[in-house]
Design a protein that fits this description.
Layout (H helix, E strand, L loop, with lengths): L5 H8 L5 E6 L5 H6 L2 E6 L1 H18 L5 E8 L7 H10 L2 E7 L10 E5 L9 E8 L2 E9 L13 E6 L2 H13 L8
Parallel strand pairs: 1-2, 3-4, 4-5
Antiparallel strand pairs: 2-8, 3-6, 6-7, 7-8
Helix pairs in contact: 1-5
Length: 186
């Protein structure tokens, strides 16, 4: 688990011919997001947050308690400004798994499981959102190439991979769920 990267695993799972490289983009439109099954790009923190928001809003509008959500934050404190959205997602989902370094404690919810990550684990330096439901499958994985330098958050420094290929999403969900140490799940 120490060297596992959800981003790299997603790249390996995605058929090469189906990955569209958008290159370096400062922002990504909803249309680009919806029209492409799988893409990769270098982008900003704001774009990664926007892509996650698109997925989160779809969960809030379309799911029917049969789905699972796996959300990874480098640090759990990054969840603090959007915790109300995740509590609502948990109300509508079978289960929500929140991964991150334990620098903040999210409120308790019967459908939320918190998975604390050790800072030495590679997964703790990636952001991801995987939704697997009968009527909706999406995965977004991103990592910050320059995570040490927080001085310019708007600069293009994230690699992001998005996929709505059901086989890719299923494999990512299975792999991340397999990594959960049930004895540590809160």
């Amino acid at each position: 688990m120490k060297d596992f990267s959800i981003f790299e695993y997603g790249l390996k799972l995605s058929p090469i011919a189906q990955i569209q490289n958008l290159g370096q983009v400062a922002s990504i439109s909803r249309r680009e997001f919806e029209d492409r099954e799988t893409f990769i790009c270098r982008t900003t923190a704001a774009s990664v947050e926007y892509l996650c928001l698109l997925i989160e809003n779809t969960v809030l509008l379309r799911t029917n308690r049969a789905g699972r959500v796996y959300a990874g934050f480098e640090k759990l404190s990054a969840l603090q400004p959007i915790i109300d959205r995740y509590l609502r997602i948990a109300d509508l989902s079978e289960c929500v798994y929140l991964f991150g370094q334990a620098d903040w404690v999210p409120p308790k919810h019967p459908n939320i499981r918190v998975i604390e990550l050790n800072p030495a684990v590679r997964l703790s330096r990636e952001s991801f959102l995987i939704v697997q439901a009968p009527n909706f499958n999406r995965a977004l994985a991103a990592f910050d190439e320059e995570s040490e330098d927080e001085s310019l958050p708007e600069q293009i420094r994230y690699w992001a991979l998005k996929s709505s290929n059901p086989k890719v999403v299923q494999s990512l969900a299975t792999s991340i769920e397999g990594m959960i140490d049930w004895s540590l799940a809160a």
